[in-house]
Amino acid sequence: MQAGTAAQLFSVFMGLAAVIGLIFVLAWLVRRTGNGWVRSNNLKIVASLALGTRERLMLVDVGGTQILLGVTAHSVNQLHVFAEPVVKEGETSSPEFAAKLAEFLPQKREKNNDSGTGNL
């Protein structure tokens, strides 16, 4: 009876090990493909900047037009549409993105203040 119980216990542990191994292999494949199932040639995240634990600024390229989005846990808001690209194709997103963004945003703020519609 002990030999049969040991064989059943071994079989259960081998099945459990196979399932856990399959989970790790699938997780590795998803990470390796970079979520390739939802890739689009017309929509790309060019750069991203974390503002907090759940808030970020994202620069998205949509058909050649770059749009700055504010993303929170509850909403996505369009902040600005750039007339010319802030980050060129092929550039890597780095801390320079914050500096480039800062170059563009004061210009917009000055335009709003000149027209009398400035924010507080």
Query: Strands across the major sheet, in which order?
Result: 1-2-3-4
Q: What's the overall geometry? A: elongated
Beta-strand residue percentage: 15-25%
Strand tally: 4
Please, could you describe this protein's structure?
The chain contains 2 helices and 4 strands; from the N terminus they run H-E-E-E-E-H. The chain has helices at 2-33, 96-114, and strands spanning 43-50, 56-62, 65-71, 76-81. It has a 4-stranded antiparallel sheet with strand order 1-2-3-4, with no helix packed on it. It is elongated and about 75 Å long. It starts with a helix and ends in a 6-residue tail after the last helix. The model has no long low-confidence stretch (mean pLDDT 78).
Which helices and strands occur, and which strands form pairs?
Layout: H1 2-33, E1 43-50, E2 56-62, E3 65-71, E4 76-81, H2 96-114
Antiparallel strand pairs: 1-2, 2-3, 3-4
